[in-house]
Each structure stands twice: as structure tokens, then as C-alpha cells.
Input
Amino acid sequence: MTAPIHQDDFIASVADALQFISFYHPEDFIQALGRAWEREQSPAARDALAQILSNSRMSALGHRPLCQDTGIVVAFVKIGMNARWDAKMSVEEMINEGVRRAYANPDNPLRASVLADPLGARRNTRDNTPAVVHCEIVPGDTVEVSLAAKGGGSENKACFTVLNPSDSLVDWVLDAVPRMGAGWCPPGILGIGVGGTAEKAMLLAKQALMAPVDIQDVQARGARNRIEELRLELYEKVNALGIGAQGLGGLTTVLDVKIRDYPTHAAGLPVAMIPNCAATRHIHFTLDGSGAATFAPPSLDAWPKVDWHPAADARRVNLDTVTRADIANWKPGETLLLSGKLLTGRDAAHKRIADMLAKNESLPVDFAGRFIYYVGPVDPVRDEVVGPAGPTTATRMDKFTDMMLERTGLIGMIGKAERGAATVADIARHKAVYLIAVGGAAYLVSQAIKAAKVVAFADLGMEAIYEFTVQDMPVTVAVDANGVSVHETGPVRWRGVFFPSP
Output
């Protein structure tokens, strides 16, 4: 008779696994990023990949999060029919306790992003619970757990449709990926689920993301079945779209395409697609009653020899003295290094500002002539002034942009991903600018932040308005004062170009 699986071992395994994936990329993902960096010919995309790789190694060494968005936890649990338990809590309760401990770890606190009452108060649960848990009863006497910490930027780009049986999956994907924009922080992985019913296709897509990166192996030996044929075709055709790292235009948009299928009804073809971002985080472990799971860190030799540093010709900008006349000279795709005082704000702060302006109330912060950074940082530890602080998706702030430019005197914004057409027009009309920092380089970006203090809306937690003092913070001009967007011009330059991976 096998030993029982103890409650404390299960909880500790979940907590340790979530801490582990917060600062360690999977080794196969590191190597795929390295190959993408080596072959990239777009200067902007190559620089972004260098930042992501440097950030990855820094996070591994410093045991700090790869990304400020430390995700919502998703758990797939396979429970053996003959497994025995020494536990009083349910499986879901044990997972949530593991999440609670992981996200409150004082040595590496993780950002709590989960909100209760999603249609009402949207109140932060403060400990990132509850997780999303899927359980399956299978033969055997062990418990297998696959965990992912899924960032909101990539999760928000999930797609679903029901195709006609004769429709082309490839055509649908090639239409959907450009519409996803860059908010999912490419390069990453596409998980595609085909068949079953609507909810089954979505689960298949999420599970597909946890498979190892092996597209180079499939290329080398050739496809063995229809699924592998589709993977190779989509890998080539998606990369040939030219979207590139961070949507800047380049050779690599996806590092792999994973597909899982399931029998389905004759009348249709349910298809789901979910991307994983440049901060891919997932892990698998098995418990057999012999104790808690242990996790071996990847060797530092797994990382390519990439040490990002700003280009010699990067323009240095003093945020404390910059004017509209200055920003009028900035060019799309140009690299800037920002120094001085920088305000922050994201979804909840913008909503509160809008409500205050609608009531003609005075704002607690003067935005005139200043820049705002769309960010929700991780709490600091030890001698940090702020934890990892990478950008959030700027598109969500589009609905507030004209208001901010028109009524507060704001002249610039920093985030990630593209802006909508109407927002680009607003930026041009107000002669403002939009800059991007690299999504997936949160720990590297935080090194440029030399001081941080909350200046408004402290009750919003990570969504409060901070004032950062930054030194040489790297950004790229994404929309210039004339409304030219690098997210439009960059992919056009690289569209149709594809070089097979070595």
C-alpha cells in the first residue's frame, strides 16, 4: 500500500512551485529565446529580446519576479483513483493555501492581482486567491499537478470561434493573431485547442501551453502527423506576419505553436487560441506520498551570453525639463533613456480620475507637462525602492487618453503594445507622444527606478499613483507627435520574411 499524501506536503509543493516559476523561465523557453535573439535582424526587436534575456538571467540570480504581473494561478490536477490522503482540506483549499503562502513570501512577495466581485466592487483579495482549479480522476496512486501563473496581458488575448467543418484553421489563426496586437508580449507560444465543445477547446488550448518547446525537433525530423504539419505551417506563417518582439517588427513572433485536439460534433469545429507571453511560467510535479516536491533550478549555462546595455546613440531625456517642443523631434522607433520624475497610473487610477473630473473635483496630482507610466509594481524587498515594474498593456487606457491629454496637460505616456487608431489620432492632435518599455523585462526596468513614493489613491494598492525617480530608463518611441506608430510601420517592414530556425 502506498504512503498517503500529506496536506502539508501538497501545500508546500504548490507554494514552492509558484515561487520557483516566478523567477525561473523553463529551460527550453530560455533556449528558444536565445535562438530567436541570435537570428533576429530587426534592430528594435533584437534589442527587446536582449532586454528579455538579460531580465531572465537577472531574475534567476536575484530570485525576483520575471514580470510585475505575477499572474492568476491555474492548476490542472490529476488524482489517482488509488491515491490516499492525510488531509482535512479539499484539493482546492490546499491549492489556495499554497497560493496564499507563495504570494506572501517575505523574501520574494508576488503581486496580488486577483479581484473578487468582478462585476461590482472589483475588490483585490490581497493574496491572489482563489486559483482556477481543474481536477481529473485517473488510474494510479499518485497526484500530478501542472501549475501556471498566467499574466493578464496574454490571457486577455484569448480567442474562440466555432468554424464550419470545412473551414481552414490556418486562415482563422492568421486572421486572429494580428488582431491580438502586441499586448500579449510576443515572442511567446500559441496554444491551440481544437474540438470537443466550447469549454473543452479552451481547456485544451491552456493545457497545450504547458508542453515543451520542440518545434525545432519537429522541423529537423519532419512532421509525423496532421497536427505536426499544422504546427509547422502555422509557425512559419505566423512568424512571416512580421509582428516581431513586442510588436516592433521582426522575424520571431512565436517560439512554438502547440495544438491539442479532441473528438467533436459533426456540425462544427470549436477552436480556441491562447498565447503565452515572454514571461512564460509553468511547472509540473508529481506527489507519491514520499514528501513534498523539489525543484532543480536551470543551469546558468542555459542562458545565452547576452548582457543588454543601451545603444550608444540613445537619446537622453530629462523628464523634469522636457517640453512639447522637445518631444516634437522624437522619431518612431527611436531609443530614449529617461531620467527624472515620472508619475504612474493604470486602470483603477484612470477610472477614479475620470470620476473626479466629471464632478469638477480637483485632482491630487498635477499632470501638466508630465509623463505617466502604466504600471502596477511588485512590492519592494530588502534595499529595493520598488519591486519589478514592467509596463502594462496601454490599450486598456485608450478610453481615458483624450481626457488625460485634454484636461490634465499630460504630454506623454509609457506602456506596452499598440494604441487604437482613435487614440493615435488623439495623440497627434494634442502633439503628445506614446513610448513603450519592454514587457517581460520588469526586473531590468526596475533597476532604473531610484526612488518611489505613493502620491495618490493609496487604497488602490499596486494601482495607486506613484512618483518614480528614474535614471536612464530604456523606452522606445512608439507613437510620435505626428501620430506615426511603430506598431504599424515595424511589421510592414518585416512582413513576408521568414528564416527557418537552425
Notes: The mean pLDDT is 96. The longest helix spans residues 43-62. The longest strand covers residues 465-479.
